[in-house]
Amino acid sequence: MCRYATTMPSKGSRTTNGGRRAEYAAATRQAIHDAARELFVTKGYFATTVDDIATAARVAPASVYAVVGGKQGLLNSIIEARTTAPDVEETYARITGHDDADELLRFITHATRVRFENAQALMRVVTDTAPHEPATAQALRSAYASLRTGLNLTARRLAELKALRDGVDTESATDTLWFYLCNQAYFTLTGENHWSLDKAEEWLLESLRTALLDPAIR
Rounded to an integer, what is the distance from CA 63 to the centroid of its chain? Predict the structure, then answer.
């Protein structure tokens, strides 16, 4: 009995090994995400192969399929990982915690500017690829849903603060926020108009003040 007992891993050893496996799996997944994101931006979605991603991530091609289901699932996985990141819930909490309507508009405008600034190259790939790739279309819908949730929370908080101008309800305020703060608005202002992000942010904030806020509190 003693001979067999000495060959069995302890409970602590099993826990440690399991923890190491989980850490390795997470690191592998992140490496694949990072490699795919860089390649999609630099080479384009359709020009990037699974072998390219595997080489850049320093993993076997089989790992790309095992971890994320191949290239078809990668964009969706990358976007979903971003929309469920801890800072998203933190942003939602900050929206509902604002007691000043103007400061809330300033906050959400800046938050969407930073979101766009950090992901604009990838989102261009997503929007260009979505019409041709169902998985990418799903990724785009996930990104839109995450942004719209934050904008709807903003509209509801403005209504709670009784800050909306006459004739503007929560639904129309959400639509207005979407019109001014969606990715396409930033693409138009910075790409087609060649504005700086600072200029775009300032203009969007002033436009939202005019469109949404009761003149008595502006």
Answer: 24
- Tell which residue, 3, 66, 8, 9, has the closest CA to residue 32: 66
What is the residue type of 102? Answer: D
Phi, psi of 93, rounded to the nearest 5 degrees: -65, -40
Mean pLDDT score of the chain:
87
**6 in a structural domain:** no
For 185, the token pair is: 């608005």
Cβ atoms of 91 and 150 closer than 8 Å? yes
Q: What is the CA radius of gyration of the chain?
A: 23
**pLDDT tens sequence across 154-194:** 999 999 999 999 999 999 999 999 999 999 999 999 999 99
Residues 102 and 198 both lie in one domain: yes
Q: 90 lies in which domain range?
A: 82-217
DSSP 69: S
Cβ atoms of residues 88 and 146 within 8 Å: yes
Number of structural domains the chain divides into: 2
Which pLDDT tens digit goes with each residue over 73-101? 888 888 877 777 777 888 999 999 999 99
- Whole-model pTM: value is 0.80
DSSP string, 14-40: HHHHHHHHHHHHHHHHHHHHHHHHHHH
